[in-house]
């Protein structure tokens, strides 16, 4: 019998925990690869609680339960999760482990799935619980899976080669480089678990996770340049086998855990930031010497090859055409009040789909009207969907996946009739000034993203305002739209990567914003490429940014008198370049709209 209510599901889980002698259980949003976006088969938290955000967790105890989310989801969690069943807890003010330590009795056994949690979390929780006489227990089989009768199966979509002409380097080259690193460090092998790293190392893509073209699989790379790919046999085609060649042994994904016990006496590197605790446990149980070290694919994946850089430019030009059609459609249709957030997102997907090269969106479109735009990570659904009000600000953050690049763009526009308020124009202009400041930055090679973050905030700070999210994240090449290790955000904040040196070839977002709770939100986002700044007479190498996203900005939200001469020049140069890239691909009313938007300020 299928359980329709979240209360019934919670009761069923508690019954299952009691059978196993467990006092409680921790439920994260995660899969066996610690992915940002997870397949439907791994959406255990959503099935149990109803929460549809991309970051959060729950704890279920014998007589109490709690949901843990950060400030991005304060509103959403209360809309989606029943407060009679779960307490709402704010992270980082507390955490699942701290809450358990405060609410579970001495002697309690708390279960966790070691294939869904990082090793750092497991070790920290274990230490904290030991002080309280609480035992952390790695479960044998997830108890939610035991009660989730209609749980979807993992995708069996075929994995496919990613053309070397898009990648710019062959898989053999990448594996040889990893082999050299292993020999240099004295390691026998490394376990690569992050799905985008597996995809990058093997020049392979898949269809197993929404928005990210990856295949559910693991790689063990060896010091001699060979590798083992663990993947469901149904996903392997003759084309993939030929592409991988003799140096990559294809094995059943079900053999992965047993294979980890075969490294007795071997030195194996595993990245604690990307590998679940279960991998460490299995290797150690088999007698391997486990060394914690960075995933060797992360940094080279972030530094794009010349082919990937050009692919990004081409993908952006294609994506820009869809955005022009969309922004013109919004301008002409939204003032009627007949367009809602879901309808707008669907229309944008339709315009992107006019390109035969579109494979997917790169994340769920943030289509945010009025007060919803003040929620930086708002996700529209049937329950939250509202009409776009006339005479308001509308924010759209979206992106596409193309074989040659991944796009991510935010545009904030005024929906008529009438004019935006002086306050709205002021806030948007300050966000624009910060965006330009970062775009024009020149900095020594090796400068961290954390060192640049203040440039994007300075004009807001001067008026006593700020925004609560990072300014920039790395972006993959037909891979994850949120890619590490680099990041532009406040130093010492909650996000890893702020201290990572920026390197030539890295792609990042530039997305300052401003949010007035309950009223409106503003964000301007383009993608930028780290390039040689070529400063005459510079003492050492300096980097700057090449803007990769070219789509008009809304001039109705700009106060020209607040802009400096150099900022006005940036605006005019940016729109001249936008016209140059997009005009040859447009005609009729779309071209006329573009020409109007690209006039000098």
TrEMBL record:
GO terms for molecular function: aminopeptidase activity. This is Aminopeptidase P family protein. Residues 151-170 are annotated as: Disordered. Residues 541-601 form the Peptidase M24 C-terminal domain. The lineage of its organism: Bacteria, Pseudomonadati, Pseudomonadota, Alphaproteobacteria, Sphingomonadales. Residues 161-170 have a biased composition (Basic and acidic residues). SUPFAM superfamilies: Creatinase/aminopeptidase (SSF55920), Creatinase/prolidase N-terminal domain (SSF53092). PANTHER family: XAA-PRO AMINOPEPTIDASE 1. Belongs to the peptidase M24B family. Residues 312-530 form the Peptidase M24 domain. Keywords: Aminopeptidase, Hydrolase, Metal-binding, Protease. Residues 9-141 form the Creatinase N-terminal domain.
